Amino acid sequence: MDGLSLKERYGHLFGQLSRFSRAPAKINGFNVYEEGNPNTRKMIDAMVEENLLPGSRLEGREHFADFLEQTKAGKRGLLLSEHYSNLDLPTIFYLLEHDEGDFGKEIARRIVTISGIKLNEDDPLVRAYTEAFTRIVIYPSRSLAKVSDPEEIKRGKTINMAAIRALDTARRNKQIIAVFPSGTRYRPGKPETKRGVREIDSYLRIFDVMILVSINGSCLRFSPANPEDMLSDKVFRDKVIVASSPVMECRLFRNSILETIDPSSGLDAKQVTVNRVMELLEEQHVKYEALKAAE
């Protein structure tokens, strides 16, 4: 069964996903916050469970637990994760909720993900798949920069202003905000897709604590023939290790980077900061890749 496309492997579930779907097909300033859909979530969980091999687990469990306790105490929590496939988030949730510690279920319950608008608007099946998890929808700056239509630019700005308000509400409600700092899935052979977006610096400014989450292994991989079509992604059984860094203070982390930048260098301080985030994620990934390979 390994190597079948998502459409081939799970096409028999697409009708049910569509029937249960309730997320809006068009985003505006009033619907950027979407509660997770428990009906579609059950089907996504079943997909993850079917393809995770024995040995799949959380690493750095004490860091996840510490992160939860700090957010429960009132610190605003940010989770920054690697992004290899559209099963990354479902796998993180699944492993958190099936860990033997109570912290995992509580973290999963509090997570709100930042999600790009195209996951709602490009394809109804992708929308049904994505809406399984609570999220705040944004109009990514990379996408907005390519828009020339004034009305669409206005819509994008309206959506992002509403997303900022929704983000502020979520932070005050002690929810954990999960962001993929690359802004897109990493495509093998295209290192630019692993470059962090400079907007992550803004998140570091408004959150108190963060963890970096690496993902080693993936049950969903790009189709070489059609990498832009999510439904053509290939399904594989794999052992997946989801690992957390120690909890870091966002302000201290950011300031430590800024202190190394010569003001006369002309460097983009925001980009330098997010570059360090991506470097640390890569170091963590390499560490656990070696552990996985040795098992």
CATH architecture: 3-Layer(aba) Sandwich
Our count of domains comes out at 1
Q: Write out the CATH superfamily name.
A: Glycerol-3-phosphate (1)-acyltransferase
Helical proportion?
40-55%
The count of β-strands is 11
**For the residues shown, what is the average pLDDT?**
92
Described by strand count, sense and barrel closure, the largest sheet is:
9 strands, mixed
Quote the beta fraction: 5-15%
The CATH class designation is Alpha Beta
Structural class call reads alpha/beta
- What's the total helix number? 12
Low-confidence stretches: none
Reading the helices and strands in chain order gives HEHEHEHHEHHEHHEHEEEEEHH
Global Rg:
19 Å
Q: What separation lies between the terminal Cα atoms? A: 24 Å
- Envelope shape: globular
- Which oligomerization state do the chains in this entry correspond to? single chain
CATH fold-level label: Glycerol-3-phosphate (1)-acyltransferase
